[in-house]
Amino acid sequence: MQVREQGFTYVIVMFAVAVTSILALRAVETTITNERRLRESDLMAVGEIFRNAIKDYYENSPGTLKEYPSRLEDMLDDVRMSTRRRQLRRIYRDPITGKPGWGLVMTEDGMHVKGIYSLSSKQPLKTGGFIREFAQFAGAKTYMDWKFVYVPQ
After folding, report:
1. What are the tens digits of pLDDT across the range 19-65?
2. How many CA atoms lie within 13 A of 103 on its CB side?
3. Nearest in space to 114 (alpha carbons), one of 82, 143, 64, 74
4. Which among 94, 111, 112, 95 is positioned nearest to 103, based on CA atoms?
């Protein structure tokens, strides 16, 4: 009779290990998803910072001819006027890729930057329910489709 009891205990222990493993796997999946959602939120915040910096650079161009920056670094120290301006404090890293590189949306002549986008080809988790400023991101296939562009009105 003792042999049967040991076998039963072994089955119970194996069942407990299986349940614990499943719960741990779910916790890891949830953590990964939450981190990805946080990175998406960070991408929207950083994208908005870049778009606002491009807007400030454009709107505060000296003279009557408005122009976009030639490169992102131009917004770190804008010396076009007698007083220096800093539209950006630093070039932020892409929260999705973790790298400093960005895709650039150029003007029609290809000489100036009017926006940025992530270089990640991953599919976004968020596909709808965006605020008005990001409404064009709905249904995007990749993060590259999330373009943060300043277009003057």
Report:
1. 888 888 888 888 888 899 999 999 999 999 999 999 999 999 988 89
2. 16
3. 74
4. 94
